[in-house]
Task: structure prediction
Amino acid sequence: MDLSLFFAGTGGSVPTARRGLPALLLRRGGDRLLFDCGEGTQRQLLRTVGLPDVEAVYLTHLHADHWLGLPGMLKTFDLRDRELPLTVHGPAPLKQVLELMRVVYGRVRYRLDVVELGPGDAVARDGYTVHAIGAEHRGPALSYALVEDARPGRFDAELATRLGVTPGPDFGRLQAGETVGGVSPDRVIGPGRPGRKLVISGDTRPTELLAVAAHEADVLVHEATFADEEAQRARETGHTTAREAATLARDAQVRMLALTHLSTRYGGREVRDEAREVFPGAVVPRDFDTIEVPFPEKGDPELIRWDATPAARAPR
Amino acid sequence: MDLSLFFAGTGGSVPTARRGLPALLLRRGGDRLLFDCGEGTQRQLLRTVGLPDVEAVYLTHLHADHWLGLPGMLKTFDLRDRELPLTVHGPAPLKQVLELMRVVYGRVRYRLDVVELGPGDAVARDGYTVHAIGAEHRGPALSYALVEDARPGRFDAELATRLGVTPGPDFGRLQAGETVGGVSPDRVIGPGRPGRKLVISGDTRPTELLAVAAHEADVLVHEATFADEEAQRARETGHTTAREAATLARDAQVRMLALTHLSTRYGGREVRDEAREVFPGAVVPRDFDTIEVPFPEKGDPELIRWDATPAARAPR
Result:
């Protein structure tokens, strides 16, 4: 099951020539989930991977740089005759904000559900759950963790055969939990294997809660609005420095740390270098980079720099 | 005095990979005026000519594809510590819409004036006037004409000298309208010369009123959402076909016709070819193209394809 993160916008509250406003597309199998949707997100997607009919949107908080691209996208979906339902999640007052924005998208013809989430809420989906984690920003704010369901343990076909089970339907019965010919499943099926875990901080101070939620995550996408030199400012504005994010990632023993939501004053290298002093593998994705997340036994998550097609590379 | 139009977004109501949502930056000397401001406009500018502290914004109407980039831009101006005042113009209910959008931009620290305009209203600025012209779309909609003040006639220094006026301060007095040594100004100063005129249709059916306002305009920027094959649809939705726009331009004897606001179904060539059957010089600017508008005696308006810097050409 493919799992990847596409960075549609990696800037902070003000866009730059190189970094768009926050948006992160999560792809798992055929599912498309969007985390935050800053102004211009629909076009960031159109210019690169195409605008998918995302099934669900998760907003981390309601500062406009994180959601202003949503009303136009809702409208575009309608103009494209979308039929699939869409659910938008986020902290209160999400319903109120989206109601105000009806001036933009009016009445859409597909089913649009708006779900307000609080810390501790969880949304179960097919094969995984999205958990909302309380964040520490200015006003209600959430981090999100996507946690896959545990996978069944490995079936040892060779051992089962040696124990006298005939390959074929009996193997299926064993894997489904039945005892076959005196052989119980636990003898030939290994322990359950945890699914993958991706954690997205949203805008926040580093918190103990997030460190716990991110324990051994495959990927932690954490904001790093500032570098250490602005540590005071980060505290005042409810943001995190690169060093703080890296420290959290190290303590949580995550497999990969991706830093995003950079202030306009940073190109990326300063933030990356500072983080790597604490967490050597830290990466700072650029717009349109992808992180592929294989199952742990298949290798480490990998940052793939965007392979631009000529059409997408040219701005027209 | 330099005068030019920079096409920041040339698409219709839905963006494509190549065409952003409507926005047109008019530059005259040091003045920067923005006509319409679709979602993503601030970034279209940041990626190319930079985001200028525009003095005034003119919205043609209040369909969201024409203004959704404004609230975020107002916010960005504030985050950049803008001090210059800004006036936003447009048809009613502009005030109501911008009040609703305070959820995005909150309280800005620069002076922000909102001025609702109706057909026939005019805004005098230093050296030119912006006229609001009633358009025919769905709901209140305006076209705009920027008309420069007439320039004084040409001063014939040689003739004045022959008539006995001494070059120097007396030339200045003549040009200021005084009679000097029996020589009246009208004998040595030619007839006043009209200023330049730019007309921007906004979304509209072709109208007689616009044809009159565009009479002998240097540049007419007209929407051409559809080609002829969709003439019926153009009528129903309050838009114009390429052929209709070209016919209007020919009847109005404009010097240059630029077609914009293309539906996603057109790349640009079909629209251009159709228009050229009626108005041979018609152009269809791409995003980031510029039209330079010299004084008539200096030559014809010229479409300049965008000379991308490497940073702007790459999307990151």
Observations:
- DSSP finds twelve helices and 14 strands in chain B.
- Residues 70-79 of chain B form the longest helix (10 residues).
